[in-house]
Amino acid sequence: MLEIKNLHAKVGEKEILKGIDLTIRDGEIHALMGTNGAGKSTLSNVIVGNPNYEVTEGSIMFNGQDLLAMNPEERAHAGIFMSFQAPIEIPGVSMTNFMRAAVNARREAQGKEPLKSTDFLKVMREKRKLVEIDQKLMNRSVNEGFSGGERKRNEIFQMAMLEPTFCILDETDSGLDVDALRIVAEGFNKLRTPETSAIVITHYQRLLDYIRPDFVHVLIGGRIVKTGTAELAQQIEEQGFDWIKEELA
Amino acid sequence: MTSEQQYIELYREAGDLIKSKSCAVMNAVRDEAFEAFQRVGFPTKKVERYKYTDVATAFAPNYGISLSPLTVKPSAYIYNIIDAPIDVAPYYHQVADKTDAITALNTALVHDALLVYVPKNTLVSDPIVVDNWLRGNAATMMNRRILIVMEQGSDATIIINDHAADKQRFLTTQVVEVYCHDNARLDLYEIEETTPLCSRFSNVYIHEGRDCSVKHNSITLFNGQTRNLCDVYLRGENSEVTLNGCAIGGGTQRIDNNTLIRHEVPNCTSNELYKYVVDDKSVGAFAGKILVDKDAQKTTSQETNANLCASSDARMYTQPMLEIYADDVKCAHGSTVGVMDEAALFYMRQRGIPEAEARTLLKNAFMGQVIDQIKFEPLRQKLYVKVEKRFRGELDKCEDCRLCK
Questions:
Q1: Is A127 an interface residue toward B (CB < 8 Å)?
Q2: Coil, helix or strand for B272?
Q3: Of A77, A88, A141, A165, which to mutate for an interface test with B (greatest number of B Cβ within 10 Å)?
Q4: Is the confidence metric ipTM above 0.90 for this complex?
Q5: How many domains is chain A built from?
Q6: Which has the minimum average pLDDT: A221-230, A240-249, B20-29?
Q7: What is the value of pTM for the model shown?
């Protein structure tokens, strides 16, 4: 599904990613762990095409397409979704209108007619239940006045609406209490199909208790320095990253 | 020849003709206004209230002047001033600033006027709609005059629509005088939807007595060059005024709004919110002054001007001003000029919303705050649609207009 080769990227003048190689096949969940500033968020932002990040070398192929040649909306239409670490407020744009624009843009890209208003609202209602998000939030401006937990839930709700095939959960667990974490993680699991793959960025083991990763990668200094299975996350939870750094040295 | 000269000569040649087509109350102040115009001339950019608009250049081309009579469809409360049911002499050219060049020129050249008269204690439930149509097969100057008299305890909504029916160069001067007697309520909407060939110079003057409430909304959806002046005089206690403005610029359009709210007596409230979205190479200017006289204690005033520059070539000038001579007042003013929120744009694009659509949504959301303030619901709904169409580039002609097909 996703194939990253020798990826280098910088923000401003600072090189953050220094040669990432990563292959993700259909249906696989890859957890990405690492110290602060290691490049986890940079990697996700590069995959979704954030214009603040510049790729200097390497390639990303997504289902055979050259991802780096596509703009952010084309990548979204191709099935890529990112749950933002810090979801953005958009004053004056209601959640309903925002979602309608997003859903219909995707349908248009797929050559489908826009959803009829009643059908759209019906889909909204069904997906809302999945992540237990309140109807009254839908009439508010996007993320405006949402609590930290509501924002994260709202990300998963948007994912439900857009039915992506490849998801990036960028610290979706941070700022969530235990119950909210369960709702968000279970929501994600319900939305998964056997083909859905994902990168899950987290600092904590607890999200991975719900979303079992097939692989765990450790990112330090802009490179993937270690790859293992779910047990590696457990080990990091207990021992931190120092032992990995020592291995490297 | 200076730009003024052709108007001075025009008046000398055609003054008598204009008078013959006009009425006594308008002719009574005509020569005096002409002399004022001759004396002051067109304001240069050194004149504080005109620093953002080059008036002389706008008036320099040779326009034909329209002396066709006003057509007033018979309807309640709207009259040709000739048929006024009241003596209008105490109002006509009495609220206006006689030293303003545009007002002076308008008063000298205008041959007929529209009167909106709402009698004492009359509540007009349906809005009074005034449609201005610019028509002509040659470049034409139109001088328009509207007098609104709200008697004691009256209540009305007035909507003034500006359309251009022909793709022709039009230069419009407009003077609107509003006289609100005690306890009157007025919602006044001005909506301009013309063409890039139109230049508009509009001066609105509002007098408020005691316990009045006036809301003025100035909406520039589509235009060429627009200069709107709005002066409000709070002359009776416990009155309030709200001035709202929505200005959308694109292409090489220019929109200059200049307002003055003068608190002359205690215990009045004023609120002002003007928002601009300027795109392409358009230029926006806002200058608003709140003047609180020495005796106007317990004044409450809030003035806000917020602007979005949607392109790097667009320009916005903003100048909020407070001038306070009383010592027990609560006044605030502020202005912001910002660019498109890049983080919000990216967030929307990640969800698959194409960049152009995302920009439209953001501009629309920004302007929504002003449209939200419109009290008359059907107009508010209509403007949500129009503003959105404007941002989508679908409003290059006025849709209500059967002539534009």
A1: no
A2: strand
A3: A88
A4: yes
A5: 1
A6: A240-249
A7: 0.89
